[in-house]
Model the fold of this input.
Amino acid sequence: MSMIEPAAAAETEPAVEAAPEPVEDSRMPGFTETGKLRLLIMALGVGISLLHIYFNIITLLPTLWQNALHYAGFALLCVLIYPTSKAKREAGKLHWTFILDIAIGVAAAASAIYLVAMEDAIYARGVRMTDAEWVA
Done:
């Protein structure tokens, strides 16, 4: 039976790595951590969160309304966080893809809110939706 001797401790110190260079956020090229868009996204996210707390604690809304408002807020938030193009955006200038992102987000939010506004009409027709409602 052999006795295993403990390995001698290495006298070398671990290599200290230099701090990594700041990496630009790949989701939002050209925008900094403190940019106005970041503040807008944060405010929208906090607002949606507070709205969900309000829905679940204070008020009693129909499920369709809750789901539509949930979808509308997160659809707008999604297009702001994940843009359609990774083209570098310069501060102070509106890039056409940013305008497209906003248009897509507003259209998605408007379609959800449209369904809430048309809820009574949809039920009055026996849940037969018109072409406009199917598009929304």
Residues 36-135 form one domain. Residues 67 and 112 are 9 Å apart (CA to CA). The chain is about 55% helix and 0% strand.
